[in-house]
Design a protein that fits this description.
The chain has 256 residues and is of the alpha/beta class. It has ten helices and eight strands. The protein has an eight-stranded parallel beta barrel with strand order 1-2-3-4-5-6-7-8, surrounded by six helices. The chain starts with 8 loop residues before the first strand and ends with a helix. The protein binds phosphoenolpyruvate.
Length: 256
């Protein structure tokens, strides 16, 4: 394990929240609250329509803009879709892929997730791949096998040369938006398992992929969740909507 060199990443996910104008207010407030000293990499996943505005207002802040999904299609007669290429051209540098809300509410299959990863990479986007088990799977103790299968499928054709453009977010489905975060010990155990899967698949380069925890992260619990040696950051939903609470989580990540 080499925790020295791994990048720390804190992602925010605004989901279907925010309208034009909110990015500017958020950026101003975030600038006021940004902690001193070395910061983690900061990635904010905004709704598609806010990408161009976000790219503009975060230009002078250490914040990269992400989209929350990209199409399985590259271009063509697919009404309502947004391609990875369009997202990148609008100013996105990252995309989430495989968020559990996409998988559960919009029927994303493992095969779709793999196609989205491929399209993102071919459009020069970086990928935050979300994996995580439903509650019933954890109740049966099947979470490790579940997450290993999600990783294997999403990364089946992943080119090891692209590993520095990948982060993996472990987001147990039962912890997202519920106020019930995983325990720090469970978050660490799963992050270590994900790291082992990545190392098995990619060799030592897999060890350098940031592994994040997501699911009801707040300023209050971030320090404990981020303390695990294999937890390199967090993906934050609700608490990323307010600049002050997001900045407090950044401060927890930046703390020595
Ligand atoms: C998420 O949307 O990825 C998430 C983790 O949400 P929340 O922090 O609100 O649980």
């Amino acid at each position: 394990m080499n925790t020295e060199k791994r990048r720390a990443v804190i992602g925010g996910n605004w989901k279907l929240n925010g309208t034009t104008g909110d990015c500017l207010a958020f950026a101003r407030e975030l600038a006021e609250h940004l902690p001193e000293g070395p910061l983690p990499e900061i990635v904010l996943a905004v709704p598609y329509l806010l990408v161009a505005e976000a790219a503009e207002v975060f230009r002078d802040l250490p914040v990269s803009v992400a989209v929350q999904n990209v199409s399985v299609y590259e271009a063509g007669a697919y009404t309502g879709e947004v391609s990875a290429r369009q997202a990148a051209a609008a100013g996105a540098q990252w995309t989430l892929v495989g968020h559990s809300e996409r998988r559960q509410l919009f029927g994303d299959t493992d095969a779709d997730v793999a196609r989205r990863v491929k399209n993102a990479l071919s459009s020069a986007l970086r990928v935050m791949l979300c994996v995580g088990e439903p509650e019933a799977v954890r109740a049966d103790g099947g979470q490790d096998a579940w997450v290993a299968a999600q990783l294997e499928s999403a990364l089946a054709d992943f080119d090891p040369e692209e590993l520095d453009r990948l982060a993996v977010a472990y987001e147990p489905v039962w912890a997202i938006g519920t106020g019930r975060n995983a325990s720090p010990a469970d978050a660490q155990a799963m992050a270590a398992h994900i790291r082992a899967c990545l190392t098995r698949r990619f060799g030592s380069a897999g060890d350098q992929v940031p592994v994040l925890y997501g699911g009801s992260v707040t300023p209050e619990n971030a320090g404990a969740l981020l303390a695990g040696p294999d937890v390199d950051g967090a993906l934050v939903g609700g608490a990323s909507l307010k600049a002050a609470s997001f900045a407090a989580i950044l401060a927890a990540a930046a703390a020595p």
